[in-house]
Amino acid sequence: MPLVAGVDSSTQSCKVVVRDAETGALVRQGRAPHPDGTEVDPSAWWSALRTAIDAAGGLTDVAAVSVAGQQHGMVCLDEAGKVIRPALLWNDTRSAGAAAELIQEAGEGQAGRQFWADAVGSVPVASFTVTKLRWLARNEPANADRVAAVCLPHDWLTWRLAGAPGLDSLRTDRSDASGTGYWSPASGEYRPDLLERALGRVVRVPTVLGPAEAAGRLAPAALSGAVAAAGSGGGLLGPGAGDNAAAGFGVGARSGDVVVSIGTSGTVFSVADTPAADPSGTVAGFADVTGRFLPLVATLNAARVLDAAAGLLRVGLDELADLALSASPGADGLVMVPYLEGERTPNRPDATGAVHGLTLRTSTPAHLARAAVEGMLCALADGLDALAAQGATVRRVILVGGGARSAAVRRIAAQVFGCPVVVPPPGEYVADGAARQAAWLALGTGEPPSWTPSGTEEYAGEPVPGIRERYAQARERHLDRLSQS
Q1: CB–CB of 147/76 below 8 Å?
Q2: What sections of 200-275 are H helices per DSSP?
Q3: Active site members
Q4: Separation in Å, CA 204 to CA 62, 150, 171, 295, 360
Q5: Burial group, residue 407, by CB count within 10 angstroms (0-12, 13-18, 19+)
Q6: Checking CA distances to 313, which of 105, 381, 408, 435 falls within 20 to 30 Å?
Q7: pLDDT in tens, 343-390
Q8: pTM metric for this prediction
């Protein structure tokens, strides 16, 4: 019974699961928190990973390990492999101006957006690594001059697990490389010209591995505490993945499935056989972990919308769900536009949120709770529409992430999305996807193991007329007002 480990180094925490490679049965797990903020010293991720590994009982009996992580984060290393500055995370919007510059430099108006869509399948936004490199070159030239290599959070952690053997040993996978803005999913190659355009010169980047290629072996000296004391078995290191691609792999998404993940950010993505290239920038043309593609729409505002509403009402999340379900669908016309932290879809990094339709009748905790849940889901449903416009088939939605634990979110989702909704049991699906990738490597069968979550809940597609229409009207009025201010 070979064992494998999967790691999810997310924005908020690090999770480690150890599973049976053949059946997917969970054997043990551990976790540790990450610091808050939109820039983080990567050493905090490393410390959390070691703590989570120890909490999971170590890796001495594990045949392979794979790391999935938050996409886009910029980790800059000097010639000695030292981190130059805290990593800018995906949700750091200070590079919004750099994104606009890069688009404009490629061509006026639509021409610039089309250039980037054709080049790398995505139009730059503040989240992407390429924009953060431009920001670094413009705002911290001394640090930019020290950069010898740039990598992503999961790349850096994999490299550290291998013992940090040198910059030429940095490895990544297709899914995470596709979120940098200088690697093309269509061609499977880096675009060094775009890297140079952003930073001013070409630096080292990780080698992109295939779905079941090893990134090296676990180095015992890389770990500390109980793990190091016991000694490592030198398990294989998988190529890893971006968090969304790992989650899709973890839930076993198939053609016709759209995964909606409600975490710190919200993502809507599907598995496709052809690469996407949306010049509007709404759909990012990422890659998946299997060799196919992962068209994706992301929102900055997801589960934290529920946290904010619960805080306003001074209730817990379970009570918020009860309040939301006690109100009628549509919240009697109360609509929340949930752009509480700026927004990526639409690309309005300086946007704020708003509540429309407030009357004496709708001035109740139940109405506000319902409007918060519906507003968050309507923003994600806009992403569902964008995928469909790019040719995605939407037969059902698989709902995952911390926000999916809300009873109100689960029940209201089908009313907003208008299609069947499947909710797997709560789990660490990003870490599970990484573990499944590690099993693919460890078993050496040429195909990934067919793990499938059990105990799913299913909700029939029952669209409620008016919810999305009222939201769209409120959204457009709000965006117009923001444009005029």
Answers
A1: yes
A2: 225-230, 243-250
A3: 243
A4: 31, 7, 11, 27, 60
A5: middle
A6: 381
A7: 888 878 889 999 999 999 999 999 999 999 999 999 999 999 999 998
A8: 0.87
